[in-house]
Amino acid sequence: MIFSKVLVPMFLFACFAISAQDLSSDQSKKLEKKVEWLKTLAASSQIVEAVKSENAKPNPDYVKMDNSTWSSLTVLDAKVKYFSSNPVAEFLKSKKDDSVSEMFLNAKNGNKMAFLSKPTYFTHIGKSKHDEPMKNKVWTGKVEMDESTGSLNIQVAVPVLDEKSKEAIGVLTVGFAVSKL
Questions:
Q1: What domains appear along the chain, each with residue ranges and CATH number?
Q2: H/E element holding 175?
Q3: pLDDT of 100 over the 90 cut
């Protein structure tokens, strides 16, 4: 009885509060600065060259990876560890600050190239967080509880641009911890 009268309404209220939460003015300003930082990071030669290389010759071990297979892999699986320990992942780790709760790099085909920790999905192709940056736009998600990190986050995805053509060749996505903005 206590469960249905007290805990269920509290749970529903907590879910509503999380989904309805907006950033404060101060947090919005800090996020704007983070977006500029993210664009600069996406334009770094290490990121651009790695994405060009992956687009030219996709890693054959991951070409057929899909989200269903990905979700069955543990963080200890060698196929997962590869993405958090390759040179691009090490570069991303060196750029992370306390506000970054997650970070991942996707090739043009939507497949992961590197990340800090295993994200929920292997590919985001067909989702706004991949498709909008591939149109040279910045994508900003809603404030929400992130499945892979367990914290209240806001994700931002920016295009990785070819330095000559200025066309999108990949996507760099970062989840920022709202509490750290």
A1: 23-180 (3.30.450.20)
A2: strand 168-177
A3: yes
